[in-house]
Amino acid sequence: MEFDPLSRLIIISNRVSAPKGTETGAQGGLAVALSSALRETGGIWFGWSGERTDEFTGHIDLQRNQGVTTATIDLEDQDIDEYYNGYANRTLWPLFHYRVDLAEYERDFAGGYKRVNERFADTAVPLIDPADAIWIQDYHLFPLGEELRKRGCKNRIGFFLHIPWPPRRLLSILPEARALVRSLFAYDVIGFHTDEWLQAFVDFVRDELGANVGDGVVTLDDRTLRVIACPIGIDAQEFADLAASVKGRLAYRRMRDSSVGRDMIVGVDRLDYSKGLEERFLGYERFLVEHPEERKEVFLLQIAPPSRGEVGSYQKIRSSLERLAGRINGAHADTDWVPIRYVNQGYGRDELAGVYRAAKIGLVTPLRDGMNLVAKEYVAAQNPEDPGVLILSRFAGAAEQLRDAVLVNPYSAEEISDAILLALRMPKEERIRRWSAMMESITTQDVSWWRKTFTDALLAEECTPA
Ligand code: GDG
Fold first, then answer.
1. Which of 246, 367, 424, 442 would you label with 4, given CA atoms 20 to 30 Å apart?
2. For 16-65, what is each residue's pLDDT tens digit?
3. Is 2 among the domain residues?
4. What domain range is 84 assigned to?
5. pLDDT recorded at residue 23
6. How many domains does the chain have?
7. Looking at the structure, do residues 135 and 38 belong to the same domain, yes or no?
8. Residue 369 among the catalytic residues
9. Which residues contact 117 (CB under 8 A, 6 or more apart)?
């Protein structure tokens, strides 16, 4: 189904990433996908500017850049502390990534989360026309659909969750779990990356809320909600082109020159405890110990730009990783070789593409991940005639599609070590066979497919009757 020319798309997410100039790779994959959806359908991207204000006024900053209209609001310090650093990143993120030990439950956080969702609804409502389709993104904004309905919004409203949906017993630990999940019945469609996350959601609404479960739909009282598994993709062709761009080739050459004939293993992750970085370093160390003959033939480049630095658990993971990298390098380095190059800064997407292409192994071992785009980017950047090997955690959503990666349990140092050896010794024909199958999958289900699949499902719904 194509977009009705009269329906605009209103995308609402925590942060808004406006197209910035024409520099290649200035925007992330999701931002590019959402911007291109808006360019095709017309509409608005609404969310927090990332800026602070002394007093929330509801003032909207409307901008138009490269055919995309953005509408942003500033938030107060208390909002940012309780909603963003608090409920979103100290409560929901750890719990939804199975880290019950790190999740904090404070009523102030829950209160701030509710208040900011109300503020989003209050300010967004005047921008919405009756024929618009609304698409809300991610765990920061679970209750926004319900808040919009309370304000009389009868539009089709969809929600996409970018992180895992946890098992029922885990989610029950959240004091507000039942009310929060009940609020999701305000939506018409909810999308998840995988069947596993979708099924966990269905289990919760059936067993905890008593919802009826049908074929792709769940019903609670008078509300029926469609649920779909719709894995996010990347723009695979664009990423392959980035690897071949001038900056991509320069980065490739620089990495090759500095490798002096050794095989590079690469990891690229936001510095986050869900990404399994400590376990990865330990698995790599095990490889060095178990295979002393291979030691100086390889090195690990870990790129990990810091994120969410105001949250204590992120400060902790940063310092413990620094210690661990220091210890491993101290124990194993030689005058002419350092086993881990650990880099805390970010790079341009074009440089990143060149780095991926120069790596014999992409080591992507999150303990839990909604999807994981780095795995797909690594595949897209490879040389088709001599591709590297992707080692991928079986607990990343991407493992449902990328069955031809070398799949590992990221908690097992032995499995990581075995996988590295297997990848280093893998014959070229097998590397090409595995890569071709993965490339086919990420090209078919790319980011445009994701966006279209979700918006088609949303547009197939009727507007909510009065
Ligand atoms: C959430 C979910 C889901 C990383 N370092 C640099 C850089 N990156 C880019 C990567 C990739 C993106 O950041 C990270 O995406 P991931 O999917 O790997 O992980 P999250 O940030 O946790 O994303 C995840 C995703 O949402 C989408 O639904 O897949 O499961 O957790 O694109 O390339 N980009 C640049 N420089 C860096 O140094 N330019």
1. 442
2. 976 654 444 445 667 877 887 888 888 999 999 999 999 999 999 999 98
3. no
4. 9-233+447-460
5. 44
6. 2
7. yes
8. yes
9. 83, 141, 142, 143, 144, 147
